[in-house]
Every structure is written in C-alpha cells, then in structure tokens.
Amino acid sequence: GTNTLNTDIVLQLSADGTNFTTATMTAMPDFASGIKMAKVNDLTIPNAGTQLKYKISFANQGSVKQARIRGVSLQY
C-alpha cells in the first residue's frame, strides 16, 4: 500500500519541547528510486522557546503498508 502524508504519516513540531503543533507536509520529487521526500512550508508555532523537537506518528500500518523514515532536517 501507499502511505498518505498527513493521514498515515503525521508530523508535529514544538519550540518549547512540550506543546506540539501539527504540520502539513507537502510531497516533493523523489530523492532517489523508492525514497520519497516531503516538506513543510513556513509554519508558525504558537509557543515560544528554543527546544525545537519533532514527533512523527504513524497510522494504518501493517503487513501491506509500512512507512520508514530515513532522515529529518529542521531549520529554525
């Protein structure tokens, strides 16, 4: 199966390390064969802080649909 961004793979960001905001990911061209990329355009996080953290959640995973995250890059 194919994972759907923002449904099967959900990204949340925090500036203070505890209060997370859900980010909307947008698909980008493939990085390499079989390796997809996604980005988040400018996102305003309502909480202030300097402890940038992320959480990735997965849904609807099973024997047919499996997501594997190979890297994350954050610019603050």
- The ordered string of helix (H) and strand (E) elements is EEEEE
The backbone outline, from C-alpha atoms, is: globular
For the secondary structure, the number of strands is: 5
Radius of gyration: 13 Å
> What low-confidence regions span 5 or more consecutive residues with pLDDT below 50?
none
Distance between the termini: 33 Å
Instruction: Indicate the mean pLDDT.
Output: 90
Q: Output the structural class.
A: mainly beta
Q: What's the helix count?
A: 0
Overall helicity: under 10%
Question: What structural keywords apply?
Answer:
76 residues, mainly beta, three-stranded antiparallel β-sheet, two-stranded antiparallel sheet, 36% strand, globular
In words, what does this structure look like?
By secondary structure, this protein is mainly beta. It contains no helices and 5 strands. It has strands at 9-14, 21-23, 26-32, 35-39, 53-58. Strands 2-1-5 form a 3-stranded antiparallel beta sheet, with no helix packed on it. It has a two-stranded antiparallel sheet with strand order 3-4. Strand 1 and strand 2 form a beta hairpin. The radius of gyration is 13 Å and the shape is globular. It starts with 8 loop residues before the first strand and ends in an 18-residue tail after the last strand. The model has no long low-confidence stretch (mean pLDDT 90).
Topology, pairings included?
Blueprint: E1 9-14, E2 21-23, E3 26-32, E4 35-39, E5 53-58
